[in-house]
Amino acid sequence: MPKIIFVSADGVTREVAAGADQSIMQAALAAGVPGIVAECNGAAACATCHCYFDPAYAACVGEIGEQESEMLDFAASERTADSRLSCQVRVMAEMDGMTVRVPALQ
Amino acid sequence: MTSAAPVISDVAYQDLLNDPYPIFKRVRDTASAVFVAAANLTLVTRFDDIVKIERDPVTYSSDNPTSLVNKVMGPTFMRKDGAEHATGRKAIEPSFRSGTIKEHWTPRFAEISERLINSLSGAGEADLFHALAAPMASLSLMEMIGFKEMPWETLALWSQFLIDGAGNYARDAEIERKAMEAGSGIDAAIEAVLDHHRAHPNPSILSSMVHADPPMPIEEIRANIKVIIGGGLNEPRDAILTLTLGLLANPAQKESVLVKPELWPNAFEEAVRWISPIGMYPRRVTRETDLSDVMLPEGLQIGLCVGAANRDDRRFSNPDMFDIFRPRQSHLAFGAGAHFCAGTWVSRQTVGKIVVPMLFERLRNLRLREDAPPLIRGWVFRGPVSLPVRWDA
Ligand code: FES
Q1: Which residues of A touch B315 (CB under 8 A)?
Q2: Do A46 and B344 touch (CB under 8 A)?
Q3: pLDDT at position B2, please?
Q4: Strands B41-44 and B301-304, how do they pair?
Q5: Contact (Cβ atoms closer than 8 angstroms) between residue B225 and residue B186
Q6: Which site in B4, B91, B161, B249 is 20 to 30 Å from B215, CA atoms measured?
Q7: pTM for the full model?
Q8: What is chain A's pLDDT, residue by residue, as a tens digit (106 residues)?
Q9: Any residues with Cβ below 6 Å from ligand 1, and which?
Q10: Residues in a beta bridge with A13
């Protein structure tokens, strides 16, 4: 199982073993990572699972969807080039060691 | 220890309508799920339990072929799970996108709001229910759906009749007749504009539905438009009134928001937490399960009381108070899980950034009337049904 490293806004890190059939949001919720709210439970409708992904892993993180991109405009913390809705990113074996930064506000 | 849901039988239905919060508190303090005889339903009222339920659609299904909503409206995606629900939801998404909201709906809704507020500004007093909130919600929903213009009262009545029909557990024949009549009115209004939307793609919901891939079948268009009319009118209406009331009743908070407009989003979220327009919605238990020490049998209908969860004192301190300064924390006014309200962002924009700020800006010294207090009612849907105010004309 790939290990994902979640980093909170105040710098606290937490390593999570993620299942391959999960989204990053589900892996975070299952491990109780603070700062990911996920009100819509993965429907890309609430923008409360926003995270910043390490650009070095862009290839396995994949392309952003149209609806996802529009929804990110509503995110409570600043949207950057690394922003994704973590519910729309599938866990991949190649993500082992990838860092995901959790924003201060959702 | 796990046991069957306790029963509360000494509460009258009228008490739920007048002020459900003390009853909600009693239910919350009794158990995770309680059968309330007056409601003829097992109610779930704690914040964490509702979140847990909404994360488990396999055990707690929205699908209920025998529901009154399906009977009154037809096969709607509100009463579906998984892929079937997602397809319906995706078909309406284009109308609710951030770009569409900002570029298309915001200017139109600002125009409607301006027109309504200008037309009443000389009067010096009004009941904001009929003078502003109901017409605002109706006219903007009309545009969003893509209907031809009609009197705001027509859509408002259809909405009311559908809601009454969907809550007609007593099977009152007159209520059923009115709901069916509203249904045929809506079918005719859809028919009248469908060809236009097919020929001219645009941001409206009807256009999104006919241009979805695959296009939504006509019987689903009819049913889902009815759901949108039933749910999309009273929520923004009630949110406008509740936010206005919360601020008028708490002058210090009102002053703060007027000098610091960046507080409007907090004020809006607090208003819908304080008095949630949709107070309860149903789910069906698909297999015997243990919900925080209460055994729920297969097939049981449960009512998720988000209006109660939003005042759960395990989560919110002083939950009965309207306080725009409370620490930021998610609430359940827009539901949770896959059915999370599609209109959330339109509503945040329209109510919290356009209508209510404009109202306080244009009507000088807006205030409640001591001789005519506001009236708030309901538990399934709850909101002010009368909000008489005065201002310096
Ligand atoms: S969980 Fe709601 S957008 Fe990802």
Answers
A1: none
A2: yes
A3: 86
A4: parallel
A5: yes
A6: B161
A7: 0.96
A8: 899 999 999 999 999 999 988 999 999 999 999 999 999 999 999 999 999 999 999 999 999 999 999 999 999 999 999 999 999 999 999 999 999 999 999 9
A9: A 25, 38-49, 85, 87
A10: A7
Please list every residue in chain A whose beta carbon sits closer than 8 Å to the beta carbon of residue B337.
40-41, 43
How many C-alpha atoms does A16 have within 13 Å on its Cβ side?
27
Mind listing the domains of chain B with CATH numbers? 3-390 (1.10.630.10)
Contact between B330 and A39 using a beta-carbon 8 Å cutoff: yes
Nearest CA in chain A to B83: A43
pLDDT tens figures, B194-207: 999 999 999 999 99
Give B7's strand partners. B35
- Of residues A18, A42, A29, A41, the one with CA closest to residue A92: A18
Residue B8 pLDDT: 97
User: Across all residues in chain B, what is the average pLDDT?
Assistant: 96
Across the interface, whether the CB atoms of A41 and B54 are under 8 A apart is answered yes
CA-based nearest residue to B209, from B96, B312, B363, B319: B96
Contact of B44 with B305, CB cutoff 8 Å: yes
Residue whose entry in the numeric block shows the structure tokens 């209907």: B147
Residue B198: per-residue pLDDT: 97
- Which residues neighbour A69 within 8 Å (Cβ) at sequence distance 6 or greater? none
Q: Determine which of B1-10, B160-169, B209-218 has the lowest per-residue pLDDT on average.
A: B160-169
- In whole angstroms, what is the distance from residue B126 CA to residue B132 CA? 9
Q: Which residues, in sequence order, are bridge partners of residue B295?
A: B4, B290
Q: Kindly tell me if the per-residue pLDDT of B68 is higher than 90.
A: no
Which of B95, B79, B173, B179 has the alpha carbon at shortest distance from B141?
A: B95
Distance between Cα B336 and ligand 1 center (Å): 10
* Token reading at B258: 């007027």
Q: What is the pLDDT of residues B269-313, one digit of tens each?
A: 999 999 999 999 999 999 999 999 999 999 999 999 999 999 999
